[in-house]
Amino acid sequence: MSVAADFLDNFRSPPTLFRPYGRWWWPHGAVENDEIRAEVIQMAEAGFGGVEIEDVHHSTSEGTEWHTDTNGWASEPWLDAVKVALTEANSRGMGHDFAFGPAWPMAVPTIVPDDEASAKEIVLGKSIINTTTTYNGSVPGPFSKRKDGVNEQKLVAVQAWRISQDSDPYGNPVYLDYGSMVDLTDTVADGKVAFSPPDNSSWLLFSAVIRGTGQQPEDYPHTIPTSYVVDHFSKAGAQAVIDFWEDQILTPEMLELIAQTPTSLFEDSQEMVSATYWTPNFADEFLSRRGYSVMDILPVITQYKNNAYLFLFNDLEVQRGSLHDYHETITDLYADYHIAPLRKWLNSRGMKYRAQPYGIAKLDSMRIATALDIPEGESLGFQIIDDYRVLAGAISFAGVNIMSSELGAYNKAAYTTTWTKILGTVNPQFAAGLTHNVLHGFSYIYGPETTWPGWGAFTPYKGRIGYSESWGPRTPTWMHVPDFTAYMGRASLFTSQGIPKYDCAFFRQNGASDDHYVGPYFTSEGARIGWTTTYVDEYLLHLPSAVVIDRRLAPNAGNYSLLVVAEDPDAGQAQLTPASASKLRDLADAGLPMLILGNWTSPGSLGLSEDSSADVATDIEHLLSLSNVVNVADLSSIPTGLAKLGLTPAVMHSASPLIHIRREHGDFDLYFFTANSSSTGVSQDVSLPIRHDYVAPLELDAWSGEISLVGQYTIMDGRLNIGISLEPQQSKMLIVAPSSADVVHVANSTADSIFRNSTTGQLFVRNGEAGDYRIVLSNGSQLTTSSKAPMPVLELTDWALEVDDWQPANENPSDDVEDIVATKLVYHSFNLTSLSPWSDIDGLQNVSGNATYSTEFVLGTAEAPYGSDAGAYMELDMFQGSFRARINGEALGTLDQMAHSFDVSKWLRNGTNTLEIEAATSLINRMRAFQPQYYEQYARQKYGLKSVTIRPFSQVAV
């Protein structure tokens, strides 16, 4: 079977491992093996591709003991349950991942805060010395207290700094004169220091101590002994994790189970709590990497209360350079001493390293993403899709073909989430480079303080509605989850094929992914007319793939036609590191088109390693002299600059919310389109490049798995023009495949639409009004077809509604788990003469559950029967929940949950037709009534059908 045929076959039935994984929360090892086995089966039968086992219980107050002494994380009961989970998952071909430790950040129970391997911080102390005062006393102590378990702290610096003349010594911030430092460290005796200011200025007496953070993983305790967060910037921290897994978890039996299907260890976002990130060897590492002593800038890189900087240098360029060099060193140490050894160890054990490379301030996410097997983002922390474009740039240059996302965590939204909410989140992410998802999440059925409908790892949270979601059989919409997981599997398969190709590489001075930066034009106005963009930084441009051939950057990767460089958004001015400026010059000399944004007449040098402003200025002056480089000072002139360069996006269309990603898979060009708006759809022509003399565009339905040739398009001047119609946040997948000859198709038509039968290939003209319609075929033939008047539009108003109302089975349950979580279904029946939301129907305001709407309608008459020359669409108004449908007792297949119009022609018959629509809701309306103290703050959702229309059309074979 060819690669292409293999892909198309897999699309129809997506392989298990492309389907979404479920983030599975356990309350430590306080679980029952039979229940673990049952929950794996539940996820498998729902179509999930794997599980990720996490010890998370945020709904429980921090400090709450829950069988920690006997069933903590990595205890024998936990290990036994993991083996059961892996055995069941393996039998079903599912993948299985683990978190590195309990909750996050990464922690193990074999260290204490004073150990070399534990997380460290540097903490400042301060005292102000007035102009006439001589200080002689104790070294100022740290501004914050040590956490429990932290017994040791080491004084590493005592310094005096002159406070700038115009600065308030007691203000916030306090400005210091760079270069005024007097080092008093070696003069300290018995904890005391003396200092007399050498002038009439006010001076800062500054101290710094290193100590363990004492941080435990979120919502501790998880283990006995206590687990503490490891040092993420030293070899010792990584080795402590490796040693624990080797000694306590990776037994021969466990390794055998792990090896049967793909396994990753997962590191969540690095939400490390410290005054300022540090490691015992930081000063030496900084000196060797940056070329000067970190002690020369120490006050301005150490944070004060609420993670703010109290001290700043009066020279803002020096201030920015100091912080740049500190953050660069933090990234270096995290990459070299944390990521590298852990990945090497995991790969040696047949596992992969998946991580969210952010959470540490200004961490270069792009660099870290290239060092991982699987970089991951998240729909909660990544507030805009440009955050995903940061990681997309990294994996493009590094040749990594998978980007994962923690999907579906929404704040204050537990039991409210619908599949359409999930789809509206993930479809734009797919268009930004996403390929894999881990659904947030699936809670074990029972845990601390369990109530109906089961224990929730994230809800209630601190006395209010928590984070979404606890999926599973406890929620009514679970009955339709196989439709969703199949769609996600096909979308992931589709977006994983081949190599993504982009138009624009947008240069950033830092590679952070969690600062929500949006570069001007290219991911906003430019994206609306077809531009595709990823971000790049200095590290990516020094990778082997970053070469220029035929005016293209990274032709074997993103194949970018343009590199854009803007002023530093952190500084609000033009500045670059010398290495960046030199690399940009090299790329420009190689012929790469560049667009330089802003005023670059006097660019500065970023960083203090050396004063290289002159070198940066020389490099920028040179590249601005080149014909392939255009500088626009005004951002509104970007289109003019692009015109000067002669550049347009590969895919072109009129301005709209339409965004896409294009991937080359052998001779196939794959396009994933979505309307990136929650309120506005698209209906327009799109112009696509083609690489072959003859091509055949295929439309792939990711809901049904059906693949069909497109019926209407034009090919002209090496481009394919095709119509795209999408509802808000709906997606469409197209493949432009090579063909040995032209596939006859409609090139132009006055008809409402052209339909091609996916089985026979027959073309049909469809119209909503009677008349003669002109058709031009690609072979030059011109035809006129006559369409008769279609049957009348039917607004369906009379319905039988049957509702299964989900309620707790026991108002006063016993301590038995099954008694607590049991659900009873209360039956409601209505005869409706019009459709309206459940919130407007007496008796259904607080109801959540499943429902069936039933009605009958008549098509055709004795004089004009419904037949092959007719068809109809079923139109649904906006629907909150999930649904399936049957006509005349036959299921309509899997329906696109983002669509509002469905071609139901082949299920209809002449005369009386029955229509049944099966609906499923979230659980929030019931939870508002059941636990109003937590959930009533969330508005009641408007479940149910609001309108259903049958819209007939006439059709004529071409």
Automatic annotation (TrEMBL):
Signal peptide: none annotated. Gene3D superfamilies: Galactose-binding domain-like. SUPFAM superfamilies: Galactose-binding domain-like. InterPro entries: Galactose-bd-like_sf (IPR008979), Ulvan_degrading_GH (IPR053161). PANTHER family: DNA-BINDING PROTEIN (PUTATIVE SECRETED PROTEIN)-RELATED (PTHR36848), SECRETED PROTEIN (PTHR36848:SF2). This is Alpha-L-rhamnosidase. It comes from Colletotrichum gloeosporioides (Anthracnose fungus).
